[in-house]
Design brief:
Main location: membrane
CATH superfamily: MFS general substrate transporter like domains
Order of helices and strands: HHHHHHHHHHHHHHHH
GO cellular component, one term: membrane
CATH class: Mainly Alpha
Distance between the termini: 17 Å
Number of domains: 1
InterPro entries: MFS (IPR011701), MFS_dom (IPR020846), MFS_trans_sf (IPR036259), OPA_Antiporter (IPR051337), Sugar_P_transporter (IPR000849)
Strand content: under 5%
Largest sheet: none
Structural class: mainly alpha
Helix content: over 70%
Membrane topology: Multi-pass membrane protein
Subcellular location: Endomembrane system
Radius of gyration: 21 Å
Number of strands: 0
Number of helices: 16
């Protein structure tokens, strides 16, 4: 019989879930705003696709480097410190982008922003891991990873509002889309820094990761981290994430420009239409989380592979649907989001927690996200080249190919985790699908 969770632990689990969710939600306000402003910068500053590609590549390079470094640092020094610093770096870089506003300054500041943003995922995964049991994590993470879908939607709408609003500080024009998100993220940063705690032991509570899982003391961290690096499933997930992030970040940064340039939408139409990507993605995350825990018994690879095959099919259809009007375009973009965000969240979230457990979760998340960020790094170059030479529709053929590669890769580890299904008691506080039950 599993030990009952104390009221004090329930309260702290809710608090940690909430402040970590809020922190990553907030990060998107200083990440998604650049893509919303791109069509305006293209006209007002005469910024070319190649220049955008260079800026986004610098961001992605620093994000990739930061994933590995900050994952390691979060395991060593605690996520509260590392994520807190990253949040403040993102605030500072966006404030400066709003005031300076030149392509040269964007290169440096987007790089700084990328490094700050890179602390979020691996650090916050590390922050969550000791507070939840393995068999809870698929459902917990399906709720928690809604932070970057809802964050993406809210950030897009927020930046679009400040970009198009003609009443409040109208003389600052597009600069408001950098300044306003910075102020909001600063407030969120303070909430996280003040209310987060690294693990239950910081508040005299017992972690769910038992000491029998790894050796004691400092050797515990080193052993767990070495196990992560030797785990073939981690590297399969990481290579798969390379291809998924290649596609996801193409949509994250370029979707408004695609809608504006290829489909001739207004800046406002492009900004608000692109919200469909994250809106449908929200439900994709929940579906993937429940399927992995309830249908596949905490195995993460099967549902992710299935959803990626579906994604490849919808990507193939997109160029044929967009000429039919705005409604088919919204539906197809939404379905792309649904089938992208499901496997994205599961493999970079719950799977990373499973791979790394308490002492290696940040490293596992950092490795997966770091390799994935190499795909993110190549994405802007590929988008600029293919769309410039062959047209926007040709991009979707490329997306189909990389998505199919990712889907087939996951088949190699289809049954990974099956051997651990008996490792924990059946009573794991996830007998009902209510969030309030899960985080208790």
């Amino acid at each position: 019989m599993a030990k009952a969770i104390s009221p004090e632990m329930k309260r702290w689990r809710l608090q940690i879930f909430s402040v970590t969710w809020l922190a990553y939600f907030g990060m998107y306000f200083c990440r998604k705003n650049f893509s919303v402003v791109m069509p305006v910068l293209s006209r007002e500053l005469h910024t070319s696709k190649d220049e955008f590609a260079v800026v986004i590549t610098v961001y992605s390079l620093m994000y990739m480097i930061g994933q590995f470094l900050n994952g390691y640092l979060s395991d060593r020094h605690g996520p509260r410190l590392i994520v807190g610093i990253g949040l403040l770096l993102s605030v500072i870089s966006n404030l400066m982008m709003g005031w300076m506003g030149t392509v040269g300054s964007f290169l440096f500041l987007m790089g700084l922003n990328g490094f700050g943003q890179s602390s979020g995922w691996s650090g916050l995964i590390k922050n969550l891991t000791p507070w939840f049991k393995k068999k809870e994590r698929g459902v917990v993470m399906s709720y928690w990873t809604t932070c970057y879908v809802i964050g993406g939607m809210a950030a897009t709408a927020f930046a679009t509002y400040w970009l198009s609003n003609q009443i409040i500080m109208a003389n600052l024009s597009w600069r408001r889309a950098f300044l306003a998100p910075s102020i909001l993220l600063l407030l969120i940063s303070l909430v996280y820094i003040l209310m987060a705690r690294n693990s239950p032991t910081d508040v005299n509570l017992e972690s769910f990761e038992k000491s029998t899982d790894t050796p004691k003391g400092k050797r515990k961290e080193k052993t767990a981290q070495l196990a992560v690096l030797k785990n073939g499933a981690v590297w399969i997930a990481a290579i798969m994430y390379f291809f998924v992030k290649f596609t996801r970040y193409a949509f994250l940064f370029w979707l408004p420009l695609y809608l504006s340039e290829a489909l001739k939408y207004s800046d406002q139409q492009a900004g608000y239409t692109s919200i469909a990507y994250e809106a449908f993605g929200f439900f994709g995350i929940l579906a993937a989380g429940y399927a992995s825990d309830y249908l596949f018994k905490s195995r993460r690879f099967p549902i992710s592979s299935i959803m990626l095959f579906c994604l490849a099919f919808v990507l193939y259809l997109q160029p044929h649907l967009s000429p039919l009007g705005i409604v088919p375009t919204i539906v197809s973009i939404g379905l792309i989001g649904f089938f992208t965000y499901g496997p994205d969240s599961i493999m970079s979230g719950a799977a990373a927690m499973d791979f790394g457990k308490n002492h290696g979760a940040a490293l596992a998340a950092g490795v997966i996200n770091g390799v994935g960020s190499a795909g993110q790094l190549l994405s802007p170059v590929a988008v600029a080249y293919v769309s410039g030479k062959y047209g926007w529709d040709a991009l979707f053929g490329l997306f189909v190919i990389v998505t199919l590669i990712a889907a087939f890769l996951l088949i190699l580890k289809w049954n990974y985790g099956k051997e651990n299904q008996e490792a924990e008691p059946e009573n794991t506080q996830i007998q009902t699908p209510e969030l309030s039950t899960v985080i208790e």
